[in-house]
Amino acid sequence: MTTNPLTTQPHPPVSPLKPILTGAGIALLAILFFVTGVDSPRPEWGEYWMIRPLLITPLAGALGGAFYAFMDYQSARGFNRTLAILLSMVVYFVGLWLGIVLGLAGTMWN
User: Fold this and answer.
1) How confident is the prediction for the chain on average, in pLDDT?
2) Cα–chain center distance at 62
3) What gap in Å lies between CA 62 and CA 92, rounded to an integer?
4) The whole model's pTM is what?
């Protein structure tokens, strides 16, 4: 039996854990940029004001990564791959922005 190397092979399925962790890691780096830049936090923010943004923003990034994994699965089933990637990027950046706003609400985002 001979195989034809010119035929297109579907890309192997990727574990959804990889894009989820990548999305959370990028979000964590983004929020660390803002949180570590505060030299003297206001007293009304509380002693542990950094916990909220450091939890919420990576969670939003992880959800964006999960959406990418879902769209990757859909593109393997026949959805337009270019449209899936563009839609995933838009959803990720909007989710990241909302995660930063929600995480910093009441402290740096007033």
Assistant:
1) 89
2) 5
3) 9
4) 0.83
Q: Tell me the two tokens of residue 46.
A: 């509380």
- The DSSP line for 19-84 is HHHHHHHHHHHHHHHHHTT-SS--GGG-TTTTHHHHHHHHHHHHHHHHHHHHHHHHHHTTS-HHHH
Partners of residue 109 on adjacent β-strands:
105
Question: Domain locations in the chain?
Answer: 53-110
**Residues 92 and 65: beta-carbon distance below 8 Å:** yes
109: three-class secondary structure by DSSP: strand
Rounded Cα gap, residues 84 and 67, in angstroms = 10
Query: SS in 3 state form for 2-35?
Result: CCCCCCCCCCCCCCCHHHHHHHHHHHHHHHHHHH
Lowest mean pLDDT among 10-19, 55-64, 93-102: 10-19
Q: How sure is the predictor about 8, in pLDDT bands with cuts at 50, 70 and 90?
A: low
